[in-house]
Amino acid sequence: MRHFFPKVHAKVQQRVDFPRERKVPGVLAGRIAKEKAQSMATITLGFAQRNDSLYRRAALLALITIVYNIAEGLVSVLFGLQDESFALFGFGLDSFVEVASGIGIWHMIGRIRKHGGEDPDRFEKTALRITGGGFSVLTLGLAVTAGVNLYQGHRPETTFWGIAVSLVSIVSMWLLIRAKVSVGKQLGSQAILSDAACTRACLQLSIVLLIASLGYALTGIGGFDSIGTLVIAALCYRDGKEAFEKARAGSLACICGGACKEK
User: Half-sphere exposure (CA, 13 Å, Cβ side) for 186?
Assistant: First the structure.
């Protein structure tokens, strides 16, 4: 049969033959490898530039927090003394203590950006201990003052500035929290996310001040200001305890309100 239809058989055989692999010339293979290497280098450079931009943004947020706390502290202490509102006065002192923590966070971001590693260095541990010590002293002073004011039935002159400062602080802290959480998630940085959680603790203080100031403004009951001072003292104790725990554990990735595990 094959001999009778040689042309047909040749065509069928030609169709069923599998194509042979074509060898890539050495020059072409080298060019492809070079292009792949260049693509990987471009991707790596892109990630590095993106992370560097995010760390610059995180550092800027830390500086904004420091400057804001200084301004908030000055205004709160000034009007707290003027109006004899110890809730506002204590809130202002808390802002000053937070400055030490903020400086430690700013230093940490710069260090991570250059060298990596989120465990705190000696400077950051010292900032944490100063923060913890400041909160401890503030807790004692505010608790004693609030107790004496409750006993004496002290009433502030007005709590207008307490309401104004707390409203500005609530809005500012909320914006800072959103920005810090966004940067922290993009970088995958637990330390920056922890800083955002601590900013949330500042938001809680602002809410306490607002409730205490509004309560007095609406009712004229001086106990609102004194109780607000006591609650602020309790929150300062919590924040001071957490600062000491972070320094002892050697980790800035402990979430505010949670426990730190020692290494």
Answer: 17
Q: What is the pLDDT of residues 60-91, one digit of tens each?
A: 999 999 999 999 999 999 999 999 999 999 99
Q: List the structure tokens of 204.
A: 């809680």
| Residues belonging to the chain | 263
Nearest to 197 by CA among 217, 162, 173: 173
Q: Name residue, tokens 């300062």.
A: 236
Q: Which of residues 54 and 116 earns the better pLDDT score?
A: 54
- CA 203 to CA 213: how far, in whole Å? 15
Q: Are 77 and 149 in contact (CB under 8 A)?
A: no
Domain range list for the chain = 59-249
Q: Output phi, psi for 252, to 5 deg.
A: -95, 5
3-state secondary structure of 71: helix
Percent helix / strand / coil, the chain, rounded to 5: 80, 0, 20
Tokens 């995958």 sit at which residue? Answer: 188
Q: Position 206: which residue type?
A: S
Side chain identity at 38, as an amino acid letter?
A: Q
CB 90 within 8 A of CB 227: no
Quick one: DSSP state of residue 259?
Answer: P
Alpha-carbon gap, residue 27 to 29, rounded angstroms? 6
pLDDT in tens, 206-219: 999 999 999 999 99
Residue with tokens 């919590």: 238
Question: 262, 247 in Cβ contact below 8 A?
Answer: no
């590693």: which residue's tokens? 117
Percentage of the residues of the chain whose pLDDT score is greater than 70:
74
